[in-house]
Design a protein that fits this description.
The complex is a heterodimer.
Chain A (H helix, E strand, L loop, with lengths): L2 E3 H15 L3 E5 L15 H5 L4 E3 L4 H13 L3 E5 L10 H14 L9 E6 L14 H5 L5 E3 L4 H13 L4 E6 L6 E3 L13 E4 L4 E5 L3 H14 L4 E5 L2 E3 L3 H11 L2 E8 L4 H13 L8 E5 L8 H4 L6 H12 L8
Helix pairs in contact in A: 1-6, 3-4, 7-11, 8-9
Chain B lengths: L9 H27 L14 H8 L7 E3 L5 H6 L4 H8 L34 H14 L5 E6 L6 H12 L4 E7 L2 E2 L2 E2 H4 L4 H6 L4 E6 L3 H16 L5 E6 L19 H10 L2 H11 L5 H24 L16
Parallel strand pairs in B: 1-2, 2-3, 3-7, 6-7
Antiparallel strand pairs in B: 4-5
Classes of the chains: A alpha/beta, B alpha/beta.
The structure holds thiamine diphosphate (TPP) and magnesium ion.
The site of magnesium ion has 6 residues of chain B, from β4.
């Protein structure tokens, strides 16, 4: 199968869906001629014109609100938010307006929009350009949240997101834009709420999101060399969450580590871990462990930044301890 | 003007302004080199070309006056009195940096000279600057706060919320819009409807447009406005027409798709703020060519020494990572 970058995969998904549905359009900062600072949208304005690939001023709450209004009146806007950190600027429009409109209208109004943004530290971009804020939006009922872990997922999830009748937030890892993966030429969609078992194993389950899937896979590789068999699962969407697939794996392995790049406290890892505790407690041989980013603003200095995020070595180390029964009474 | 600022002859003021502009240019040339030689982590936004804006304004301020800065903030930081050594250390993520390496280029702050910090959120400092002015008023001090931001930042709604309050309460704040013609890869006229100064005027705020490549014009205007702001006649708004020489950031090399080489050449060759001021100084007999060259050489050496120092300086200890999340 051909291999393309995550950036190309997103570009293809957008182009295909924009050809398919004339009510779709993209809006955001420097999305047209510049094709975004990450060059993910290159070529789209040439094909679809400036009416459907719209450059906006730096007015995030404004264009986010406009997307909500356009969605309520029949369009399928795709909002491009240059950095995930800017979610804080659009919170009202996203969480008070987009997320609640369908419910508040008793099911009469729909807000079918996609918010495309990103996450991820270690680019030396400091505290306001490095956050992984998926937990914040996942907390709000009415928003779906997708976290592609490769070019394949990025394409399939984006196409599903655009066709979904709800507001969907997609977080791409900005360090993965140039990563290649096999992506079929033929059309495919990845349904929401269906986890993907990336690697089968029997001793421990590593549940990981976005680029943390790579981290988990590397850890599994290291563990395999030592005779520990780790299963790696990618939920692909955290809302909806494929709880059944995660429970099934944990009932089999009886141990789990949940890995996500958001801050560890009150995060995605905590949510998944507590669901496993509630529903698979009697199958567990060890406490379910959370591994998130350190609870600090992301520091600029490389000497500090690199230790704030989960690493394959760290995951493998914790897995070893869990399998040896060492962390039964973990703090 | 605050008594802290002792009276100086124009000659001293002029030479200091010249030196400060050269220091900014030299700082940026070195920062760009550090990026190109892969010695600097991440990206940075160069202030080169806009020196007369920061220097003209900050030379009208005292250390207790405050500024808020932007992602393109090295110029503001130098102009407000910062030292090269601590700045380069910060850019390289070293312990001796102004923020102990935690902030980097986009978050440099220099408490000792009233720089409340650069900001990586476009428009993110407008509330902070206006709040600093509110504090001065409540405290009964005559300190003024200058809020630097770009033309692109005028699209943020926050500006209009705080200008309204600043005007209602006569706050001692000066909004300094650095209009360099571009917001990332987009021309200002494509993102700003109507006139920028008219927006301030709509709130009853006195607004001026000034040639941002003319350090004396910027300084004269700012001195007058600062003096009036100290007396409670603020807020004010200044739109400074200027130009950035480099790309949006150091990695923005191929930019012909959004601005022409001819345009860049014109600004650099015909309106450079340092060259213009240098001619003025020599023509007016304020400094000789030799004296100018001596200043340039001195600044270049300072910068080179600071870079060398910063490269050798140590990174913060990893134990610092969770320090400073909360104040004691
Ligand atoms: C809220 C927010 N939106 C977008 C960005 C990305 N961004 C960084 S600088 C910039 C352009 C700013 O233009 P302007 O205000 O004119 O300042 P200049 O870079 O020209 O000095 C953009 C869009 C950001 N940092 N923050
Ligand atoms: Mg600008």
């Amino acid at each position: 199968m051909r291999e393309i970058t995550l950036s190309q995969a997103v570009n293809e998904a957008l182009a295909e869906e924009m050809r398919r549905d004339p009510t779709t359009f993209i809006m955001g900062e420097d999305v047209a001629e510049a094709g975004t600072p990450f060059k993910v949208l290159s070529g789209l304005v040439e094909e679809f014109g400036t009416d459907r690939v719209i450059d906006t001023p730096i007015a995030e709450p404004g264009f986010m609100g406009m997307a909500v209004g356009a969605a309520m009146t029949g369009a399928r806007p795709i909002v491009d938010l240059m950095f995930g950190d800017f979610i804080f600027l659009i919170m009202d429009q996203l969480c008070n307006q987009a997320a609640k409109t369908h419910y508040m209208s008793g099911g009469k109004l729909n807000v079918p929009l996609v918010l495309r943004t990103n996450l991820g530290a270690t680019r030396r971009s400091a505290a306001q350009h490095s956050q992984s804020l998926q937990a914040l939006v996942a907390h709000i009922p009415g928003l779906k949240v997708a976290m592609p872990s490769s070019a394949y997922e990025a394409k399939g999830l984006m196409k599903t997101a655009i066709r979904d009748n709800n507001p969907v937030v997609i977080f791409e890892d900005k360090l993965m834009y140039q990563d290649k993966a096999p992506v079929p030429e033929e059309e495919y969609l990845i349904p929401f709420g269906v986890a993907n078992v990336k690697r089968e194993g029997s001793d421990i389950t590593l549940i990981a999101t976005s680029s943390m899937v790579q981290v988990a896979e590397k850890a599994a590789e290291m563990l395999a060399a030592e005779g520990i068999s780790a299963e790696v699962i990618d939920p692909r969407t955290i809302v909806p969450l494929d709880e059944e697939a995660l429970l099934k794996s944990v009932r089999k392995t009886s141990r789990a580590i949940v890995i996500d790049e958001g801050h560890q406290s009150y995060g995605v890892t905590a949510e998944i871990a507590s669901r496993l505790n509630e529903k698979a407690f009697y199958h567990l041989d060890a406490p379910v462990l959370r591994m998130g980013a350190m609870d600090v603003p992301v520091p600029f200095s490389p000497a500090l930044e690199d230790i704030t995020v989960p690493t394959p070595e760290g995951v493998a180390e914790n897995a070893r301890k869990l399998c040896a029964g060492e962390m039964i009474h973990a703090a | 003007m605050s008594p802290a600022k002792k009276a100086k002859t124009n000659t001293e003021d002029y030479l200091r302004m010249y030196r400060q502009m050269v220091r900014i240019r030299s700082f940026e040339d070195n920062a760009n080199q550090l990026y190109l030689s892969a010695k600097m982590p991440g990206l940075t936004h160069m202030y080169s070309g806009e020196e007369a804006v920061a220097v003209g304004i900050c030379e009208a301020l005292t250390d207790s006056d405050r500024i808020t800065s932007t992602h393109r903030g090295h110029g503001h930081c130098v102009a407000k009195g910062a030292e090269f050594k601590e700045m380069f250390c910060e850019l390289l993520g070293k312990e001796e940096g102004y923020c102990r390496g935690k902030g980097g280029s986009m978050h440099i702050a220099d408490q000792s000279h009233g720089n409340l910090g650069a900001n990586a959120i476009v428009g993110g400092s407008m509330g902070i600057a206006t709040g600093s002015a509110l504090r001065a008023k409540l405290q009964g001090s005559d300190d003024v706060t200058v809020c630097f931001f770009g033309d692109g930042a005028t699209a943020q709604g926050l500006l209009y919320e705080v200008m309204n309050m600043a005007a209602l309460w006569n706050l001692p704040v000066i909004y300094a819009c650095e209009n360099n013609g571009y917001s990332e890869y987009t021309k200002t006229e494509e993102i700003a409807a109507g006139s920028i100064t008219a927006r301030a005027e709509a709130f009853g705020i006195e607004a001026h447009q000034v040639d941002g490549q003319d350090v004396l014009a910027v300084n004269d205007l700012t001195q007058k406005l600062v003096a009036r702001a100290r007396k409670g006649e603020g807020p004010f708004f200044i739109e400074l027409m200027t130009y950035r020489y480099h790309g949006h950031h150091v990695g923005d090399i191929n930019r012909e798709y959004y601005r022409s080489k001819a345009e860049e050449k014109d600004w650099k060759e015909n309106r450079d703020p340092i060259t213009r001021f240098r001619h003025f100084l020599v023509q007016e007999g304020i400094a000789s060519e030799d004296e100018i060259e001596a200043i340039n050489a001195e600044v270049e050496k300072d910068a080179a020494d600071a870079v060398e120092y910063a490269l050798a300086a140590k990174y913060p200890d990893v134990s610092e990572v969770d320090m400073h999340v909360f104040a004691d």
